Each structure stands twice: as C-alpha cells, then as structure tokens.
Amino acid sequence: MIKFENAVRAAMGVVMVLILAPSSAAEPAKKPTRPQIVAARSTAAPTTKQATAQKQAVADKKLHNLVLQVNTNEPAMMNLALNNATNVAQYYKGLGEKVSIEVVTFGPGLHMLRDDTSPVKARIEVLALSTPEISFKACGNTQENMRKAEGKDIPIIPQAQIVQSGVVRVMELQEKGWSYVKP
Fold it and tell me: Which of 22, 97, 126, 163 is deepest in the core (most CB within 10 A)?
C-alpha cells in the first residue's frame, strides 16, 4: 500500500511539473555557444581552496565584541553570564570568526570577582585558561566602597583586572560599538 501511495505522489509531481513548466521547456535544448560556456564557467561555484580562502578573508576582517554586565550578587546570574560568554565564544570559534568578550562587574556583582566571596571562582579560573577571548573587569569604585564598609582590603581574583568604574567601562565599550547584554 505504501509503495502504491509513493507511486501516486511521484506521478502527481510529474504531472504538476508538466502543467507548470513554460512552453519553452517543450522545445529541444540548443547546443550552447562558446560565449555561453565561458560565462557558465565564470559563474561556477568556487573550488574548495577558493572557498576556504574567501572564508578566511571574511574571518580576518570580522571581529565581534560583546560586553556582559553583572551587577547582582546572585550565583544564578553569575553563572548565566558565564554561560552566555562561553556560548558566544564557542559559536564564533565554530564559524572561524574572532570574538572579544568582557564581563564587567560592579555594585553587588563585584562578588563574582572577589577572591574571598566568589561563588564562581573555580569556574572563572578554568574559563580564563581555556577561553582567552573572555576577560573580566572589576569596578574599582565598588571595591573601594566595599573596603570602607567592611573595614578590610577587598581581594580580586587574579584573572580579573580592575577598572576605575564598571559603569563607565560598559559605556565606553558601547560607544566603541560593542554589543551589550545584561543576563
């Protein structure tokens, strides 16, 4: 029964092609002239080597930039930011394109990069070694405010760099055309 249904579908497809085909399709094919052959060759698909070279040329020119903001002391949000950064890095690596990702922390989000309180410290250590496209920035203003409030130095993990202001860093990157995401 299935073979019969498939045969009926195929026959209907042929009938539809004949009905919808232009009348010129009924004419015998003409032998192409020399200029037509040359034109056909020039529009042919590039060889594998050419396609690879074209892809590389595009990849060399295209750089993607992403800034991720973390301003809450919630491990779920911190992990979401790390997941987003990892996924974006893997995506563009798979395409052979370059990407630069900055995770900028400020306010309560600074705990993400604090050496003494980070719930994601071990994950950042591994990520920093395996994915150099991802960098981490800690707000110096927040660090100083926490130092005053807690009465002690606020250590930052070695994988992070301190910027004067996390908010200003986000603004400056956006002004340079970076894409902004707040997980």
Answer: 163
Number of Cβ within 10 Å of residue 176's Cβ equals: 9
Q: DSSP string of the chain? A: -HHHHHHHHHHHHHHHHHHHS-GGGGSPPPPPPHHHHHHHHHTSPPPHHHHHHHHHHHHHH-EEEEEEEE-S--HHHHHHHHHHHHHHHHHHHHHT-EEEEEEEE-GGGGGGGBTTT-TTHHHHHHHHHH-TTEEEEEEHHHHHHHHHHHTS---B-TTEEEES-HHHHHHHHHHTT-EEE--
| 42 band by pLDDT with thresholds 50, 70 and 90 | very low
